[in-house]
Write a structure and sequence with these properties.
The protein is mostly helical and 174 residues long. The chain is built from 8 helices and no strands. The protein has one domain (3-159). Helix 5 crosses helix 8 and helix 6 crosses helix 8. Keywords: Membrane, Transmembrane, Transmembrane helix.
Length: 174
């Protein structure tokens, strides 16, 4: 593996790590600082009283697919549209960066689907466990769709003959 390609991979990996940090920060902590003491308190409270998590799942969570999405369309407020679009847009870079980092992977759309879903599930579960948001199955749907849409944009970009480094003079398999 040549040095230029290896350094390009490290840059993409760094971009993915920074992107994921920003997503965690924005989704879990909004625009506040990350408070390790608060996180420790929340984890400790839920460890000793796991029924708190069940209460949140029962009374605050959305476990009905498309319930909130349909509400966005019914209400059509600025807040609902920002939330709808934001859940998609925030995951699009994820779908673009993964195939750049793991060039030549088999079934890339399936891997992007699974990794987008898993990353989103981790965020939603963290909101539940830390009681710093609401677990919402529709966020899983929209985030995963955003990852796939990002992958679709990556594919379209690759088909146009992008200036990305190529493997043996050919575009990366995807």
């Amino acid at each position: 593996m040549n040095t230029k390609r290896m350094s390009g991979g490290m840059v993409i990996a760094a971009m993915l790590a920074i992107y994921m940090y920003i997503v965690v920060k924005v989704i879990l902590f909004k625009f506040h600082s990350i408070d390790p003491h608060f996180i420790k308190q929340q984890l400790k409270a839920h460890w000793h009283s796991p029924e708190m998590i069940m209460d949140q799942l029962t009374f605050r969570a959305n476990l009905v697919p498309f319930h909130v999405i349909f509400t966005y369309f019914e209400q059509a407020t600025l807040h609902s549209w920002v939330n709808f679009a934001g859940n998609i847009l925030i995951f699009m870079p994820f779908g673009m960066l993964l195939p750049l980092l793991f060039r030549g992977m088999s079934n890339p759309w399936l891997k992007v689907l699974m990794l987008s879903f898993t990353f989103s599930l981790g965020l939603e579960t963290s909101q539940l466990i830390l009681a710093i948001g609401m677990f919402d199955v529709d966020d899983l749907i929209l985030n995963t769709f955003g990852g796939l849409l990002g992958y679709g944009m990556y594919r379209a970009w690759m088909m146009t003959g992008s200036p990305l480094p190529r493997n043996n003079g050919k575009p990366a398999r995807s």
